[in-house]
């Protein structure tokens, strides 16, 4: 019922909240409840609802984890202004538990979405594109890489 | 160690996610809306990137009325809070002429010197007449009066070090001293919950900064060993100097530092110890000499002792106490000494008089009474709040008492409900504390009487029930049956 919250050594207030207990469960629960809401509001089949959830998850996480740079407050005087949230977490160390978890979630969503839509073609292509872009963006070799200068600093 | 109910952690993340999502939507529509309107600042760069003040605009401003409340009297145990209203959902607040008399649970008034004192105030007014309100000069030009000399001797004597230097502002003491005592090629190891002034000073110094887990001497040893073995970042040469920075009482947790173990580890690995006693000087220890006296650490083992006068002495400013050579060096290199205006003479006199009261040199025992009272008050309030089921942090004897709130909606709820019942509390949220761990911080004063504390308990208990922050089960109350001598447990 109770969990202990140990103080972290992460000085970056934008990312240290991800090291506290309960984050993984909240993430999974939010995704699941958004599926329920899409299913109840739009009344589509479960497969289409999963596809909608998967694609909107792709847009939201790509925008906030891999596109937006910097931190939402000015206290740290802009030292992280060139780094996206994905590049900031865990102080830039690669292949930590949090990063592995965040890489697995879009993959699991892809499997669920493609299974429940019976691997039909137009939807399968969109889902595959989404998961490929997300997983490639999370590779350790892509740390601080800006392809063709897209989203580089001014 | 903070224990959160798991469900509360989940709901807190969900609430922050919702607030973040709403903020992003509003920003998105604002951007579209502003695109239609022409701007008369074509060609100018924006003052701040749209992202940097997202937290201020979309989260902080919504509950702005809980922070920065203006007060209209001295911050004694009871004070006047000015009422404010807003016509545009808290984006701007306007003051009214009305004031409400509230119980002060937020000011750092540990020994009760914040309001008029029978020994200190006449002497302060005297020095105001004699020296006037400001020295109008830096220490090296014309700003060193006899009061400043007396103050530095007094402080060095009180703290237990050979000499001391005093600055006009406490924040500046940390951020201007750290760049002077260490530079590039040095290593600063600081506790993860150190105050912003230390973080700023460390960043400004150019030294490499490493952080160890809060109050965990074993992790400090691990970090020290790893860093000494690796050396400087690219060249792997040995470090020029290693300074370990810790605080006496951590202002957001109310915890005491584990000073004996940390000093032992630093001696073993030949690192310097910098102790920031902003909240503990004057408030803990048998004669008020701070955390070294309380924990039995010899002051000769702590290399640099820093403190402020804002909390227990009712004044302003900060000091650094150390060996004669160190203070001599600081006096000719520290920019806060060379270029900043010296501490105001009435403020200096207030510190001298309050130190005399604490040590009993004014001829009465008021100092010892104040110290005993603040200890009793803190222990009483802490144990009562814990019995009611609140999650209260901090060690025994510490006058700082944070009550955990967690959910972002409970912050304004707690603050506003308490103000309606005339109790003023300070609530702290992200980014001063971690995202999940928002809290209401209570600071006990020696000028709080037992009635004040009982009223505070009653109000906090009522508001706590309303807001839902009694995360632990309350202890069963014992009830005496009238006419019988037995005790019945409910």
UniProtKB/TrEMBL annotation, chain A:
Keyword Ribonucleoprotein: no
Its membrane topology: Multi-pass membrane protein
Major localization listed first in the record, in broad terms: membrane
Subcellular compartments: Membrane
Organism this protein belongs to: Hibiscus syriacus
Pfam families hit by this protein: ORMDL
Domain of life: Eukaryota
Record key words, sorted: Membrane, Transmembrane, Transmembrane helix
The keyword Membrane belongs to this UniProt entry's keyword annotation: yes
Protein name: F-box family protein isoform 1
A Gene Ontology term for the protein's cellular component: endoplasmic reticulum membrane
InterPro entries documented for this protein: ORMDL
TM segment ranges: 21-42, 101-117, 123-140
TrEMBL record, chain B:
Subcellular location: Endoplasmic reticulum membrane
Keyword tags: Lipid metabolism, Membrane, Pyridoxal phosphate, Sphingolipid metabolism, Transferase, Transmembrane, Transmembrane helix
Pathway the protein acts in: Lipid metabolism; sphingolipid metabolism; Sphingolipid metabolism
Name the record gives this protein: serine C-palmitoyltransferase
Domain annotation Aminotransferase class I/classII large: ranges: 102-460
GO cellular component: endoplasmic reticulum membrane; serine palmitoyltransferase complex
Domain of life: Eukaryota
Organism: Hibiscus syriacus (Rose of Sharon)
Principal localisation: endoplasmic reticulum
A GO molecular-function descriptor: serine C-palmitoyltransferase activity
Family: Belongs to the class-II pyridoxal-phosphate-dependent aminotransferase family.
SUPFAM superfamilies: PLP-dependent transferases
Topology relative to the membrane: Single-pass membrane protein
Requisite cofactors: pyridoxal 5'-phosphate
GO biological process: ceramide biosynthetic process; sphingosine biosynthetic process
TM helices/strands, residue ranges: 6-25
Membrane in keyword set: yes
Catalysed reactions, semicolon-separated: L-serine + hexadecanoyl-CoA + H(+) = 3-oxosphinganine + CO2 + CoA
């Amino acid at each position: 019922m109770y969990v202990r919250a140990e103080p972290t050594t992460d000085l970056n207030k934008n990312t240290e909240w991800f090291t506290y207990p309960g984050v993984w469960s909240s993430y999974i629960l939010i995704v699941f409840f958004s599926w329920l809401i899409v299913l109840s509001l739009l009344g589509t089949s479960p497969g289409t609802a999963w596809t909608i959830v998967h694609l909107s998850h792709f847009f939201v996480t790509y925008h906030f984890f891999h596109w937006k740079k910097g931190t939402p407050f000015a206290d740290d005087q802009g030292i992280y202004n060139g780094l996206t949230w994905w590049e900031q977490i865990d102080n830039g160390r690669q292949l930590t538990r949090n990063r592995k978890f965040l890489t697995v979630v879009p993959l699991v969503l892809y499997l669920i979405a493609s299974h429940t839509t019976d691997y039909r073609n137009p939807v399968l292509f969109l889902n595959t594109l989404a998961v490929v872009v997300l997983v490639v963006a999370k590779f350790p070799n892509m740390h601080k890489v800006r392809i063709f200068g897209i989203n580089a600093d001014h | 160690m903070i224990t959160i109910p798991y469900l509360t952690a989940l709901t807190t993340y969900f609430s922050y996610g919702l607030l973040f999502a709403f903020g992003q939507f509003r920003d998105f529509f604002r951007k579209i809306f502003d695109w239609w309107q022409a701007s008369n600042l074509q060609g100018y760069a924006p003052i701040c990137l749209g992202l940097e003040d997202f937290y201020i605009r979309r989260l902080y401003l919504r509950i702005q009325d809980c922070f920065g409340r203006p007060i209209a009297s001295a911050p004694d145990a009871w004070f006047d809070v000015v009422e404010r209203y807003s016509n545009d959902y808290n984006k701007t607040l306007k003051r009214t002429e009305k004031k409400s008399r509230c119980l002060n649970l937020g000011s750092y008034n540990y020994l009760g010197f914040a309001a008029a004192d029978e020994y200190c105030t006449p002497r302060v007014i005297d020095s105001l007449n004699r020296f006037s309100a400001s020295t109008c000069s830096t220490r090296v030009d014309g700003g060193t009066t006899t009061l400043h000399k007396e103050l530095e001797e007094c402080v060095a004597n009180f703290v237990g070090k050979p000499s001391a230097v005093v600055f006009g502002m406490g924040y500046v003491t940390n951020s201007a001293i750290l760049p002077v005592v260490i530079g590039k090629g040095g290593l600063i190891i600081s506790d993860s919950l150190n105050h912003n002034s230390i973080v700023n000073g460390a960043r400004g110094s150019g030294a490499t900064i490493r952080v160890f887990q809060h109050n965990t001497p074993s992790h400090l040893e691990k970090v020290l060993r790893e860093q000494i073995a690796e050396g400087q970042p690219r060249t792997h040469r040995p470090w020029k100097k290693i300074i370990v920075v810790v605080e006496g009482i951590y202002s957001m947790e109310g915890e005491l530092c584990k000073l004996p173990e940390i000093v032992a580890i630093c001696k073993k690995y030949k690192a310097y110890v910098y102790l920031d006693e902003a909240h503990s000087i004057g408030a803990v220890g048998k004669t008020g000499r701070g955390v070294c006296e309380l924990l039995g650490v010899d002051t000769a083992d702590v290399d640099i002792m820093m403190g402020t006068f804002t909390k227990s002495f009712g004044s302003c400013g900060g000091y650094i106490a150390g060996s004669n050579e160190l203070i001599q060096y600081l006096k000719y290199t520290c920019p806060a000494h060379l270029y900043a205006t010296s501490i105001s003479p009435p403020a200096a006199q207030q510190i001298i008089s309050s130190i005399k009261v604490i040590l009993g040199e004014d001829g009465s025992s008021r100092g010892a009474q104040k110290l005993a009272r603040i200890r009793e008050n803190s222990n009483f309030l802490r144990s009562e709040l814990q019995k009611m089921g609140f999650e209260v942090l901090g060690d025994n004897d510490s006058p700082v008492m944070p009550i955990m709130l967690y959910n972002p909606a409970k912050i304004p709820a707690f603050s506003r409900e308490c103000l309606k019942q005339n109790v003023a509390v300070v609530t702290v949220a992200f980014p001063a504390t971690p995202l999940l761990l928002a809290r209401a911080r209570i600071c006990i004063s020696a000028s709080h009487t037992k009635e004040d504390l009982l009223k505070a308990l009653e109000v906090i208990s009522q508001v706590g029930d309303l807001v839902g922050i009694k995360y632990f089960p309350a202890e069963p109350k014992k009830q005496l049956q009238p006419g019988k001598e037995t005790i019945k447990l409910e």
